[in-house]
Amino acid sequence: MPGGFELGPPRVLHLAKRNCPAPVVFNGQMKRISLVTALAATLGLALASAPASAQIVELGSTATPLVAPACPRGVSPANCFIILTRTTALQTVSDGVSFPTKVTKAGWIVAFTVGLSRLSTNASTERSYLHVLDQAYGGTPRLALTVLKPGPNHTFTVAAQTPIFHVLPYLGGLVELPLSLPPTFSQFSAIPVVPGELVALSVPTWAPVLSYNLSASKFAYRQSRGSNCKNAAPTETAQLTLGASAQYLCNYATTRVEYAATEITNQPYPKTYVHAPRQGP
C-alpha cells in the first residue's frame, strides 16, 4: 500500500501564509509558460548571462515527468490508492535519485507544480467521491509546500512554508502554483532556501497526488508520522507549524508524490562590484 486512501466506491473504510494570484494550469500539449522568467525579471536576475548568473532549478524533477496520477493498469477503483490524506509527504527516491527535492544552492522558491488526479470521468460518481472525501478528511482538497531541515533518525523540522492552496478546480491535470508578487523586492514573498534543506508536500485534508506500482528500487517517499503506516492517517499529521519537528517513519516504496518546486538560485555579486563582501584573506 502506498500510504493513500483508496479511491473506491463512496465510503470510508474503517506558515508564512499570504494571498496568491490564480494558479497556472498546464496540459500535455502546452509549453511551460514563462512564469519563472517573469519572476526572475522582477528580481532583476540575468538568467542567461555569465556562468555565475542565477539559475532556474526544478527541485524534484527527474527523468520521469510529473503527471496527474491514475489508477495502475488492471487496478479497479475500489483498490486504487492515489489519495494522500492529512500528512506531509517527502519524496526520498525518484528515478533512483535520492532526495530529489534537496536544495543544493541558496535561492528562492517562487512556485511549485502538482499533478492532481481526476477522481472519475463520470460527473455523478466524481461528486459522490468528493462528498465522501470532504466529509472524512475535513474539507476540500488542499495542499502547501513545506521546506524541511533534516535531523537525526528521520526527524525533520519545518523551516518555511507556502500558503495553503485550494486545488479542487484543478483535479485532472498539472497545476503550477506561483507565490505572490508584491510591488517591491524588499517585500518579495518567495521562500528563501539554503543548501541541505528539503522540499515536501503538506496535505491538511486530502489530495489525489500519488502515482504507485512503480519500481521499488527507483521510487519511494515518507510521511510525517511514525505508526499505523498501513492505513491512512487517522488524525491530522501534516506539518503546518514553523519550527515544529516530526519523525518520518512511514516509508512507502513504489510510489511517487507528484510535485516539484521551482527555485531561482541567488546570483553572486559580479567580481567588478566594488561593494561586494570581501572574499578570502
What does it look like?
- The chain has one domain (5-265).
- The radius of gyration is 19 Å and the shape is globular.
- Strands 1, 4, 5, 7, 8, 9, 12, 14, 15 and 16 form a ten-stranded antiparallel beta sheet that branches. Strands 2, 3, 6, 10, 11 and 18 form a six-stranded antiparallel beta sheet that branches. Strands 13-17 form a two-stranded antiparallel ribbon.
- The N and C termini lie far apart (56 Å).
- A hairpin with a 2-residue loop joins strand 4 and strand 5 (97-98).
- It has 281 residues and is mainly beta.
- The protein has helices at residues 35-43, 123-137; strands spanning 5-6, 24-26, 56-59, 81-94, 97-98, 107-116, 142-150, 155-161, 165-166, 173-178, 191-193, 198-207, 210-211, 219-223, 245-247, 250-253, 256-257, 259-265.
- The longest helix has 15 residues, at 123-137.
Compact summary:
Helices cover 9% and strands 34% of the residues. The chain has two helices and 18 strands.
